[in-house]
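REQUEST ID: PR-0412
SUBMITTED BY: lab tech R.K.
PRIORITY: routine
TASK: structure prediction, single protein chain
INPUT:
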Amino acid sequence: MRRTLRLATFALLAACSASPSTKSAPDDDFSAAAKSDWFSSKVQIVGTIAPGTSADVPYANPPLYRGLRFTVDAGTRGALVARISAPGKSPEEADPMAWLLDASGAPVAFNDDADATTADALIEARNLAPGSYTLLVRDYARRTATFRVEAQPAERPDVEVVALQIDPESPYTRVVRGFLSTGSYTTFSSLTGGFAAGPIVAVDGDTVFLQVDQGGTNGLLAINHKTAAVSTTLLSRSYWSLVRPRPPASQPQRLYGIAPAVLDDYGLYAIDEATGTETLLGVVGDKGTGWPTREPIGVDTATNELLFDRFDGNTHGLFAVSLTTGAVRRRALLTHSYASLTRLPDGDLIGVDVEPTRAPVYRISLASGEERAIADVGGTGLGFPMNGTIGVANGELYLQRDRNGVTEIVAVDVRSGVVRDITRVAASFIAMKLEQ
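STATUS: complete
OUTPUT:
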């Protein structure tokens, strides 16, 4: 996935000491840290660290550093606040130092002494972009010691999204980017040559993918949110919506969409992103079996199948179509008519069922088909969800809700069902999407 190295806000604390007259600032050089031979010769990775966890790190030189891996999930901003101490040792016996490096090997945070009263090191790194990081520790004088690394519990990371919004000052749709908790969004493009045909397809690094209708001609639009550069791949048909799963290694990037095929049949098509070639993989709905009710849910990578909801006039079912053979099978019978269905990282689904007086949220087992109510996000006094869901990150489902004409952003914990209001926005969004 293409990623952008975004600046992180962190506390870069000056190297200070309980004995400043006898200590000089370290001269550690990380200019070659991006090279694999530098890591293999200088660093011994001894585990991982995450907010709310701790680790004992035995240290001896060589190699010069011990390392703990830290990861910030896609679509979020992360934070690591960690204290590194040497329990039972005086500063004359052990004096920890610590650096946090990003995936390129560049330091984003460093500390020797947290303050003038202690030899403990304190790393404070916030607003970290998605990606892999390495927490490095060593002793100031390179003595053998055991360090204790304690990471503070997680600060809830902000979630970055791309959204479509009607421009009140023009007939065009704005494409904006911003953070859910602040409600602040910046426009980086306008669809002046057409309008969005369906939800946002995907947000992959710097690029937003949209299906657009340009005066009767359909296309896949790719917009770079930093440079505003636009490229278009022409499509021969209008799809209800498109999904863009990550391809297996060495495979070309494809999109998948459901559209009318012939007569009353609906087909699943694979679209080669590079060439625009559209290939019919199979029929997923007709007069006899029923029709898909909304956009595809996502790809089950374990079986290489695209999941979708189909209604036969009496019942809803969760169906899957093979991306290899086009064969269709029912995975589960659904007892509710969901306004939206979203795939969770653990493989289950989460669905919002908008009823006349409430909007219950169900967690659906992909293995058994069990539908378990976990929350209610609509009803008298609450308002109702609208415009589908935004996505899942940090263990929460994010959605828009209209409460008496005011648009709210709401989060639902996908396990406990706890609902929290995040922010209110001045105007609703046609569609919102988390980074892939």
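NOTES: The longest strand covers residues 384-393.
REVIEWED BY: pending
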